[in-house]
Amino acid sequence: MQINGDIIVGIDGSEASCEAAAWALKESRRSGQPLRLVSVAAAAHPKFADLTEARQAAETALAEVGRRLTELMAGQETPAVFTTELHDGDPAEVMAELSEDAGLLVIGHHGSDQPPTGRIGTVSSGLPGHALSPVLIHRATRGSEFDSVDVHPRGEAGVVIGLDTSDYSGVAALNAAGYAAATNATLHIVVGTAPLDGDEKARAQTELDMTWLRSHFPGLRVDAAYHDVDPVDLLIEQSREADLLVMGKRGIGRFASMLAQLGRTTSQVMPRAECSLLVVPFRDDPKLDDRRLAD
């Protein structure tokens, strides 16, 4: 995964945000990018009588996750390194503003004021469409991030991406391949086999893309599977076994269409994905220059 700036984690006192912070700490150590833990005190929060009470809760949440991260790295050559920040305002708006200079935003899939159900919380669902940086919605499905100082808990299904010919999808594929290579996971490309341009072209494009990704990530394990089903249903099904699902904010063809800030597929998969989800905006990456498109 290419992270070009600070890793910012939203902290709200929930276990989900603590797990997200532990995931982010490992990626900070891997990438060398600074880790910032951010908590936002909202005056309109239903659990607090006023802003002062909300700030106290936010400070407590930051202190607790800081303590747990420090304990996680106790005895290591390099201790846990991070900074903490307290902001006032609407959590989604503050995080979106911080994304302007961030390399990655990381949030838990639900907040402290919501039950730990399968659906993601309001901040998690609203932020990816407005953020200018990639957003990782973390979901602990294979165990706790606090079980290891350097390895993410994972199964056998690896990293999954739905691919098309858009630049959004190309940038997302680079992030997915980079993460898979760094974590020694397999990258699984899933492709709808009945796009507008025909099945044959979709398969040819996928072969070109696998060659392209291998050229930039030597040793990458990557395969492809073709399905004649709705892309939303396909990606949700794949997320049940995957460790990470990666999607571009928008796309074209079978994995596309516009709906507000997110594409149709991304906006419909996001609240129903059953693994961690990385939503990637477009960036001008020089690796896109040698991505070949099928005729």
Question: What is the CATH top level name of the largest domain?
Answer: Alpha Beta
CATH architecture of the largest domain: 3-Layer(aba) Sandwich
Please name the CATH topology of the largest domain.
Answer: Rossmann fold
Largest sheet: 10 strands, mixed
Kindly state the mean pLDDT as a whole number? 87
**How many domains, as an integer?**
2
Which range does the strand content fall in? 15-25%
Helix content: 25-40%
Pfam family, one: Usp
Protein name: UspA domain-containing protein
Family: Belongs to the universal stress protein A family.
InterPro entries: Rossmann-like_a/b/a_fold, Universal_stress_UspA, UspA
Commentary on this structure:
The radius of gyration is 19 Å and the shape is globular. With 295 residues, it is α/β, with parallel strands linked by helices. Strands 3-2-1-4-5-12-9-6-7-8 form a ten-stranded mixed sheet, with helices on both faces. Strands 10-11 form a two-stranded antiparallel sheet. Helix 1 (15-31) crosses helix 2 (51-72) and helix 3 (91-98) packs parallel to helix 4 (122-130). It folds into two domains: 6-138, Rossmann fold (3-Layer(aba) Sandwich); 159-276 and 283-288, 3-Layer(aba) Sandwich (Rossmann fold). It has eight helices and twelve strands.
Characteristic key phrases:
295 residues; alpha/beta; Rossmann fold; 8 helices
Map the helices and strands.
Elements: E1 6-10, H1 15-31, E2 35-41, H2 51-72, E3 83-88, H3 91-98, E4 102-108, H4 122-130, E5 135-138, E6 159-162, H5 167-182, E7 186-192, H6 199-216, E8 221-227, H7 231-239, E9 244-248, E10 258-259, E11 262-263, H8 264-269, E12 276-280
Parallel strand pairs: 1-2, 1-4, 2-3, 4-5, 6-7, 6-9, 7-8, 9-12
Antiparallel strand pairs: 5-12, 10-11
Helix pairs in contact: 1-2, 3-4
Pfam family, one: Usp
Family: Belongs to the universal stress protein A family.
Domain UspA: 7-137, 159-281
